[in-house]
Write a structure and sequence with these properties.
Blueprint: E1 3-10, H1 15-25, H2 28-33, E2 38-44, E3 52-59, H3 62-69, H4 72-83, E4 87-94, H5 102-105
Antiparallel strand pairs: 1-3, 1-4, 2-3
Length: 110
Amino acid sequence: MSITVNIYYSGKNGNAKKFAQEMHEKGIVDRIRQSPGNLKYEYFLPLEDAETILLIDTWTEQSAIDTHHQSPMMDEIIELREKYDLTMKVERFISDEEGIPESDKAFIKE
């Protein structure tokens, strides 16, 4: 099982993108990626919304997320979110233990 959290950060005047850039520049992204239990931490730009950036963040289990939330990095992240005056929409997904069904594999080109 893994847990994926999609966070849509939205702001004004390109602030969401500036936030993600500063997360990279300060090394926060690299530190999160090295955290025990982190499987993925990547930012994406939605084509339809220039004022939003999507973070896809995947962890092995809830306890790894809880440890991350208690880490000093969270203070840094919160400070940057406030600096750029961002709002958030969050979606949470738990992996399907059985994987991709055979009926869906026909539609996937590898």
